[in-house]
């Protein structure tokens, strides 16, 4: 038995009691007991316990004495284990956020049903703490900063966050006067939703000068490696960045090598071997002779493959498709004509409808689809029926004022536990579109969740299924679902599946998108925007769509304004 372990458990019991809403007197007794144990010597504690004299210590009553004896003699404390089992595991993780004590965590749990760090972050990004009693905008910002600090210490980063850091590094590298070529590689170039580090590849006549510049980039926290052709640094955000510098003629091979997944690279080496060649990071060789390729396109062509876009290099049949010339022409950012799933200040968005419309006009979109939360989402300022009707009127007025952009009126309707929607069909029929989403009961049993979603998908007023798996990256797994059934039901009921482009969701998962495409189910890339800057997240949704092999024809919001209006009129 280690006294530090016992002290930590007593401290945690005090926290758990506060989370349960017990009196401060009771929790304070455990906090005090933890301090007493910490100040004792190990032998002193053992002697007092074995002599049954611990109760004589000021601050240790009979109940605490019995619990401490149980732990000392058995290494187990049943009261602690039972108490811990009664509290969602994630609440203790949330308590690690600077500035969040048990009372505030308890309020978040009771008022917003937040049980994980990821759910808390998402609630902050949807501005749900701004009007919450005891919180506010400043507290919300501080919580977000604290969450980012904790996540970085775990060594995992959202794709968006890592990509922005990597792009900045690439800009700095491109300032080098003797640079040949430079590019991102690794998981960022493949558009993985979660990134652990940043990989960059460059060519230069004097590699040592370039690595020297790299390690002196402003705000570098630490230099891990500094060699002639390789340098590794740690950045203030906690993420590591590796730079490989090669000769000009080696660049295409190095870029390919450091981009592909392990599975992709292994399959490529096997293909080269079957053709009497070999591949490594320095080149493609026949015997000892380098097969010269000006770029990756020529590299793939030498191996009788069409060019494989970086997003597809995961070892999931892309090489076979490239050998047959059957890789699809992937979606491009420019193909997106407008967006849906936009929140305004009618629920938990930060902007007025007019501000949203003006931004989308300026951005060049042909249309925007407003979809504020429905009334069950009380925690997000969900709209009562009269508020929804008022919003419809305001959208009609704005459409008259700004005829050069389509303004479609929708709602993000909660799917209730029984699969019904949040408004009667009489209300829903007044809208252009309905996004049906699950926001509660996320851990429902698989059969019940399937029934819930299948019933919602069968509702003729449902246009789209929002964030279909309900996952939150780095914090909450997908709901228990039979995605095969959900995908087939979407096809049968002509329901569009959302690819929610929020960096914390990127849901529908790219691993399901190929099947979605095969079934002919349309996907809509939606930013789930709560403020104007969130519209930029659509680009990350496009990256995930490409990773899922989607083409322009597979994506709903590549249609023109007229085509969208006609679709809504018929459906």
How is this structure best described in words?
The chain has four domains: 151 residues, DNA polymerase, domain 1, CATH 1.10.150.110; 91 residues, Beta Polymerase, domain 2; 70 residues, 2-Layer Sandwich (Beta Polymerase, domain 3), CATH 3.30.210; 238 residues, TIM Barrel, CATH 3.20.20.140. Helices cover 44% and strands 14% of the residues. It contains 24 helices and 17 strands. The strands form four sheets. The chain has a seven-stranded parallel β-sheet with strand order 11-12-13-14-15-16-17. A five-stranded mixed β-sheet has the order 2-4-7-6-5, with helices on both faces. Helix 19 links the parallel strand 13 and strand 14. It is globular, with a radius of gyration of 28 Å. The termini are far apart.
State the separation between the terminal residues, measured CA to CA. Answer: 68 Å
CATH architecture of the largest domain: Alpha-Beta Barrel
Structural class: alpha/beta
Fold-level CATH name of the largest domain: TIM Barrel
Number of domains: 4
Count of β-strands: 17
What oligomerization state is this entry in? single chain
Keywords, separated by commas or semicolons:
about 45% helix; Beta Polymerase, domain 2; seven-stranded parallel sheet; 4 domains; single chain; alpha/beta; Beta Polymerase, domain 3; globular; DNA polymerase, domain 1; five-stranded mixed sheet; about 575 residues
Concise summary:
The chain is an alpha/beta fold and 571 residues long.
Question: Secondary-structure blueprint of this entry?
Answer:
Elements: H1 3-20, H2 24-39, H3 42-50, H4 62-74, H5 78-85, H6 89-94, H7 102-112, H8 117-125, H9 137-153, E1 157-158, H10 159-173, E2 179-185, H11 186-189, E3 194-195, E4 197-204, H12 207-215, E5 222-226, E6 230-234, E7 240-246, H13 251-259, H14 262-274, E8 278-280, E9 283-286, E10 289-290, H15 296-302, H16 318-323, E11 338-342, H17 353-363, E12 367-373, H18 385-401, E13 406-414, H19 425-428, E14 433-437, H20 446-457, E15 464-465, H21 483-492, E16 496-500, H22 510-519, E17 523-526, H23 538-547, H24 561-570
Helix pairs in contact: 1-2, 1-7, 8-9, 20-21, 21-22
């Amino acid at each position: 038995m280690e006294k530090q372990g016992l002290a930590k458990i007593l401290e945690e019991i005090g926290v758990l009691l506060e989370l349960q809403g017990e009196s401060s007197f009771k929790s304070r007794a455990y906090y005090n007991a933890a301090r007493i144990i910490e100040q004792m010597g190990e032998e002193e504690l053992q002697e007092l316990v074995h002599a049954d004299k611990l109760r004589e210590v000021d601050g240790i009553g009979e109940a605490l004495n019995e619990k401490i004896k149980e732990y000392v003699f058995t290494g187990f404390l049943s009261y602690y284990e039972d108490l811990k089992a009664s509290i969602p595991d994630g609440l203790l993780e949330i308590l690690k956020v600077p500035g969040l004590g048990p009372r505030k965590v308890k309020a978040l749990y009771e008022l917003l049903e937040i049980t994980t760090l990821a759910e808390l972050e998402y609630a902050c990004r949807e501005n749900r703490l701004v009007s919450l009693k005891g919180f506010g905008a400043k507290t919300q910002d501080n919580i977000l900063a604290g969450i980012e600090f904790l996540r970085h210490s775990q060594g995992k980063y959202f794709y968006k966050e890592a990509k922005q850091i990597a792009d900045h590094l690439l800009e700095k590298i491109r300032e080098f006067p003797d640079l040949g070529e430079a590019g991102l590689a690794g998981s960022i170039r493949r558009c993985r939703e979660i990134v652990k580090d940043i990989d960059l590849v460059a060519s230069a006549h004097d590699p040592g000068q370039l690595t020297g510049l790299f390690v002196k980039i402003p705000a570098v926290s630490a230099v891990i490696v500094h060699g002639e052709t390789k340098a590794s640094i740690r950045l203030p955000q906690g993420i590591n960045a590796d730079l490989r510098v090669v000769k000009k003629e080696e660049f295409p091979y190095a870029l390919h090598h450091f981009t592909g997944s392990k599975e992709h690279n292994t399959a490529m080496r096997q293909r080269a071997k079957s053709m009497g060649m070999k591949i490594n990071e320095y080149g493609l060789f026949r015997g000892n002779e380098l097969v010269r390729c000006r770029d990756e396109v020529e590299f793939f062509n030498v191996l009788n493959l069409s060019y494989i876009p970086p997003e597809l290099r995961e070892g999931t049949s892309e090489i076979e498709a490239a050998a047959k010339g059957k890789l699809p022409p992937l979606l491009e950012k420019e193909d997106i004509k407008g967006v849906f799933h936009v929140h305004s200040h009618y629920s938990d968005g930060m902007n007025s409808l007019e501000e949203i419309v003006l931004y989308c006009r300026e951005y060049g979109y042909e249309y925007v689809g407003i979809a504020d939360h429905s009334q069950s989402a009380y925690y997000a300022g969900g709209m009562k029926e009269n508020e929804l009707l008022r919003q419809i009127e305001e959208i009609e007025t704005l459409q008259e004022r700004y005829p050069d952009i389509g303004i479609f009126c929708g709602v993000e309707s909660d799917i209730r536990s029984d699969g019904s929607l949040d408004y009667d069909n009489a209300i829903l029929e007044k809208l252009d579109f309905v996004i049906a989403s699950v926001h509660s009961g996320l851990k429902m049993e698989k059969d019940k969740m399937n029934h819930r979603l299948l019933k919602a998908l069968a509702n003729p007023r449902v246009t789209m299924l929002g964030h279909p798996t309900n996952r939150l990256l780095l914090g909450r797994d997908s709901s228990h679902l039979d995605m095969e059934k959900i995908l087939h039901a979407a096809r049968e009921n002509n329901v569009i599946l959302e690819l929610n482009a929020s960096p914390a969701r990127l849901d529908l998962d790219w691993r399901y998108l190929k099947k979605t495409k095969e079934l002919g189910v349309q996907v809509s890339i939606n930013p789930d925007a709560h403020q104007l800057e969130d519209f930029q997240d659509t680009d990350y949704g496009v990256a995930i769509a490409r990773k899922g092999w989607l083409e322009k024809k597979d994506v709903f919001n590549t249609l023109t304004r007229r085509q969208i209006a006609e679709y809504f009129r018929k459906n």
